[in-house]
Design goal:
With 692 residues, chain A is of the alpha/beta class. Chain A has four domains: 2-29 and 46-78 and 655-673, no CATH class; 97-240 and 625-642, von Willebrand factor, type A domain (Rossmann fold); 247-348 and 563-619, no CATH class; 352-561, Rossmann fold (3-Layer(aba) Sandwich). Chain A is 26% helix and 28% strand. In chain A, strands 17-16-18-19-25-24-23-21 form an eight-stranded mixed β-sheet, sandwiched between helices. Chain A has a seven-stranded antiparallel β-sheet with strand order 9-10-13-12-11-14-15, with no helix packed on it. In chain A, helix 1 crosses helix 3, helix 3 (50-73) packs antiparallel against helix 16 and helix 7 (173-187) packs parallel to helix 9 (211-221). Chain A is elongated. With 314 residues, chain B is of the alpha/beta class. Chain B folds into two domains: 13-28 and 83-313, Rossmann fold (3-Layer(aba) Sandwich), CATH 3.40.50.410; 49-80, no CATH class. In chain B, 38% of the residues lie in helices and 27% in strands. The longest helix of chain B has 26 residues, at 258-283. The chains are: A alpha/beta (692), B alpha/beta (314). The interface between A and B is large, with 36 and 59 residues. Chain A: This is Aerotolerance regulator N-terminal domain-containing protein.
């Protein structure tokens, strides 16, 4: 219970007034001589139970009348989300500081009917109204894009703040909580309320993230100083399940295709529509997809079958001289407008340049061949073989892939420049595959890079050395047709052990990694523990695995250097995206939020086109369970309020009328209890007699 | 009959004049020593024929009805009702509780007001009945009782005895505990049979104990009348403030919130009065419940009239 005028509660002790008056009255007694003591004694003996209780009830009701009146004057607020205590209100230890953690992810832009307020708008409005009502000394906003605390002057500012508007980037709730924790610690905040406004999507909350446990421990230390209020938006109750009644569209591929005579080119578009519940049953439905491509618009109908609509290789012919551009696909408005549009860019594929660093001519030749032969006739591929000693003259700007078969460079050695160059390449999205040096001496001389180190050469026993590999993702994934790579048929005779933290993509029979990937924020770093030489393995002889591996790494590395790119919202740093020029998308969005808003952008420096879209995870409607939420806030002062998009009922409501009604009931009850017992006039007849 | 120079505040000449014409009748045959107005249990010569009775040897032959013998050839003796005087024993409760009173009335100077206690009211009734009884030739005695018989005057017909009774009534003060049950048992036993006993008290004792007394008195052939005197405040219990009640008979004081206790008090009082009513009905006692705010003339008029009517019916 919170009060808008908590200072009025200082009058609460007045509730004891009836009791005090009663006690004073007891002391102001009169003495009188009395004859009929026998009845008085009898009455005193009988005066137990109900009469005593009645007296106390009367006093309690009188006290309640005053208390209810004081509470009513104090303007009480009823709200499940406000868990402040009366004591806190009296001592002014209310919510002095309020931190609003705002989930702005696309799923928060769902509404009940597509036209009313979205979850995000409803949440912001309710929080702003509630804070305007109850007041707060300091208001801090931590929204899912910037994930940094920002002080807001008044709660009303939340309505107009662009940073409280929609975004296309997923939220990272643990990171936002961490930011709140750091802010509380840095500013030595006292009583703080953390309001979380979210729709509890799994990928936003990351319930199994290790950060939650450390957050929980840190917040537990605050005790009741920090309280959590979760404004949880679930599926709409009136319109059924929002998630199930919503369609989303996503482009799987948009690529430029030149005809053989080079007279014209076309864009091949493959897209997928995830349908709602009605699409999964009954007759197949057709969804009109609007295709915007460089000022021209066309509509194509996509048949929904089994809840999914697929459009594969839809051909859109371009003017003869156009080889680069952007566009978008969109489906009709539904409950969530944020997932109805998807932007894409297309361009001539960039030349793929590979740098093979090796002292061994044979290995260099094998790797060069595997890198230069492209599967796509439209793509040019170049591979240069250099010795580690000749790296100084190499131009690194357009290198997509480095195949390194030499001693590992290290930062504290003579080859520190090479180490820095490799890290820079990976940092801008390039790929590196390290092969072990041939000689044991070189292995021993290897340094440490990306947290990895070569150990020593060893022999492998057995015919088929590879016991398992990751066929679902990364370099050794199965083909689009679904057939697995023949990794199991590879023969490995010798290999070098690896030390460091990496994910194994292929494992030898003794558990040693054949191919491992080091986790990096961008780009890709791979370590292959054998060489293509015949004495070491059959990588060159059975060339499919090596070829596919290199071509996939090359394509991935080249995509980061191309003139167009498709990225998920929120992946690029905001400062970097600020320099982009918006070509398509929401015009009202701030340039500081380019990285988080869907659209097409052009880099001012190099004219590169970038299509920013929501993450594929946003189309997954899985929500974190109530039990998981409870577990995350276990033992913390936590209140959860479930809301529905578009509902305008306020979080806080003045309930003084209830107290006045309570007061009235107490007064009526007191009056009833005080009513004298109705006795007939002749109840104790004075005159009378009997005679025999 | 008494010295008019000594005005008694418990005797009102107007009341005496109004009641003078009304006889004080006994409800049952009395054993008097001299001829009087009251029926005697013994048959004697009188003008009032009572009944025929078969002759038994030893009967006075002068009372044989020869005419009846002539008609039926049987011997009958004619019996006539004998009239005698009565002995009226006035029993006044003088325990502490009888000093309670809240009724205010004007004093003889018609200006000042005084409070009327139950004892004063009892004095008036006792004195008036005594006066009326002596006036019609009956003997009157007085017993003042509290924790025992405080004062006892035997029943005498002498008018000069009336002054002694009045003096005694004037002197008595209410004090001490009530031992009415024991005293009534004692009086029932010590008073010669066939007397009229009139008790004036508030009867603040257990009604079940009184039942035994009344049966004992009846067994002794006495005609028992009760004047149950109650103050209006005792009936209404209309106190507003918390009160400390001090027992007028020396018991423990009780502190009570009247609003809390009034209901139970009335319940206990009602129960007591119903018990009294039941007991007096069962034991054949002439019972008069009197609120002392009522005119004692009306009370006595009702008392005397009822007795006279009962006599006529017989």
């Amino acid at each position: 219970m919170n009060f808008l005028q908590p200072w009025m509660l200082v009058a609460l002790p007045l509730a004891f007034l009836p009791i005090i008056i009663h006690l004073i009255n007891q002391r102001r007694f009169q003495s009188t001589q009395w004859a009929a003591m026998m009845f008085l004694l009898s009455a005193n003996r009988m005066n137990r139970g109900y009469v005593k209780i009645r007296q106390w009830l009367i006093l309690a009701l009188r006290a309640m009348v005053i208390a209810a009146l004081v509470f009513a004057i104090g303007r009480p607020i009823a709200s499940g989300i406000l868990g402040g205590s009366i004591a806190g209100s009296i001592t002014g230890r209310g919510p002095a500081n309020t931190i609003v953690i705002l989930d702005r992810s696309p799923s928060m832009q769902a509404s009940n009917d597509g036209t009313s307020r979205t979850k995000l708008e409803t949440g912001v409005a309710e929080i702003a109204e509630a804070l305007q009502t109850i007041g707060t000394q300091r208001l801090v906003l931590i929204e899912s894009n910037a994930v940094s605390p920002r002080e807001v002057a008044t709660p009303a500012d939340l309505f107009d703040l662009p940073e409280a508007g929609p975004s296309d980037a997923s939220a990272d709730i643990p990171a936002m909580m961490l930011a709140a924790l750091d802010y509380i610690n840095a500013n030595q905040l006292g009583q703080t309320e953390i309001w979380i406004c979210s729709d509890l999507r799994n990928h936003d909350w990351r319930g199994d993230d290790g950060r939650w446990s450390s957050l929980h421990d840190a917040f537990t230390e605050f005790g009741r100083r920090v309280r959590f209020r979760l404004l949880a938006f679930g599926p709409s109750s009136s319109a059924g399940n929002v998630d199930a009644d919503n369609r989303s569209v996503r482009i799987e591929e948009a690529k430029l295709e030149a005809t053989a005579d080079d007279n014209e080119s076309a864009v091949l578009i493959s897209l997928q529509i995830t349908g709602h519940a009605d699409d999964a049953e009954g007759t197949p439905r057709s969804v009109p997809v609007t295709l915007d491509l460089d000022q021209s618009r066309s509509v194509v109908n996509v048949e929904m079958q089994g809840g999914v609509g697929q459009l594969a290789g839809h051909r859109v012919v371009l003017p003869r001289d156009q080889t680069r551009g952007y566009g978008s696909v969109s489906i009709p408005a539904d409950l969530n407008l944020a997932d109805n549009t998807y932007f894409f860019t297309f361009d001539k594929p960039p030349p793929q340049r590979t740098l093979v660093v090796s002292d061994d001519g044979e290995i260099g030749r094998v790797l060069q061949l595997a890198a230069e032969i492209t599967p796509d006739e439209n793509t040019r591929s170049v591979a240069d073989v250099v010795s580690p000693r000749d790296l100084a003259g190499v131009s690194w700007e357009d290198v997509s892939l480095v195949l390194w078969q030499a001693a590992l460079p290290s930062h504290d050695g003579s080859d520190s420049d090479a180490a820095e160059m490799l890290e820079a390449l990976v940092g801008r999205g390039g790929r590196v595959i390290f092969f072990p040096p041939e000689s044991g001496g070189d292995v021993a001389a290897s340094g440490e890079l990306f947290g990895m180190q070569w150990l020593s050469w060893g022999e492998v026993e057995g015919e088929h050395a590879v016991s398992s590999w990751r066929g679902d993702a990364d370099l050794l994934a199965a083909t689009l047709a679904g057939s697995a790579l023949p990794v199991g048929t590879l023969r490995v005779k010798r290999f070098v052990g690896l030390e460091g933290d990496a994910t194994t993509l292929a494992k030898l029979s003794d558990g040693s990694p054949l191919l491992a990937r080091v986790a990096t924020p961008k780009g890709g770093v791979y370590f292959c523990s054998t060489t293509p030489l015949a004495k070491d393995s059959s990588l060159a002889a059975d060339g499919v695995v090596l070829y596919v591996m290199i071509q996939r790494a090359l394509a991935a590395g080249a995509s980061s250097l191309g003139n167009t790119s498709q990225i998920d919202a929120g992946v690029t740093a905001a400062t970097e995206a600020e320099r982009w020029e918006r070509l398509a998308g929401r015009e009202s969005a701030l340039s500081s939020e380019n990285a988080f808003v869907a659209g097409v952008f052009r880099e001012r420096d190099n004219g590169r086109l970038i299509a920013v879209n929501r993450s594929s995870l946003e189309d997954a409607s899985a929500r974190i369970s109530d039990e998981q939420v409870e577990a995350l806030f276990h033992d913390l002062p936590f209140v959860r309020v479930d809301r529905t998009a578009g509902k305008s009922n306020s979080l806080v409501e003045e309930v003084w009328r209830a107290f006045l009604i309570l007061m009235l009931i107490a007064m009526i009850g007191e009056a009833c209890l005080c009513l004298p017992r109705v006795r007939a006039k002749d109840d104790t007849p004075v005159r009378g007699g009997a005679s025999a | 009959m008494w010295n008019q120079q000594q005005p008694r505040d418990f005797l009102d000449p107007a009341v005496l004049a109004a009641l003078g014409g009304m006889p004080l009748m006994a409800r049952r045959p009395m054993r008097g020593s001299v001829s009087g107005k009251h029926t005697s249990p013994t048959r004697g010569s009188s003008v009032e024929f009572a009944q025929y009775r078969k002759y038994v040897p030893g009967d006075d032959l002068r009372r044989l009805d020869w005419r009846a013998h002539g008609r039926s050839d049987r011997y009958y003796v004619k019996e006539f009702e004998a009239d005698t005087n009565l002995r009226c024993c006035l029993v006044v409760d003088t325990s502490g509780s009888m000093e309670f009173g809240t009724v205010t009335e004007k004093a003889t100077d018609a200006v000042t007001k005084k409070t009327l206690t139950k004892l004063q009211y009892a004095r008036r009734i006792a004195a008036t009945i005594g006066y009326l009884a002596v006036g019609q030739g009956d003997a009157v005695g007085l017993s003042c009782v509290a924790d025992g018989i405080v004062k006892h005057l035997p029943a005498l017909r002498n008018p000069s005895h009336l002054r002694t009774i009045f003096d005694t009534l004037e002197e008595i003060r209410g004090q001490g505990e009530t031992h009415l049950v024991e005293v009534l048992h004692e009086l029932a036993e010590t008073t010669r049979q066939g007397a009229m006993i009139i008790v004036m008290s508030d009867f603040f004792v257990d009604p079940d104990l009184l039942r035994g007394c009344f049966e004992h008195i009846r067994f002794r052939k006495h005609d028992l009348s009760l004047f149950h005197l109650l103050d209006p405040m005792e009936l209404s219990f209309s106190f507003g403030r918390p009160t400390r009640f001090l027992d007028m008979e020396g018991g423990t004081a009780i502190f009570a919130e009247p609003s809390e206790i009034a209901d139970r008090y009335h319940q206990a009082l009602q129960q007591y009065l119903e018990s009294m009513q039941e007991i007096v009905t069962q034991t054949g006692v002439d019972y008069h419940r009197v609120g002392i705010d009522e005119s004692y003339q009306d009370v006595l008029t009702r008392f005397l009239t009822r007795r006279a009517m009962a006599r006529k019916v017989r």
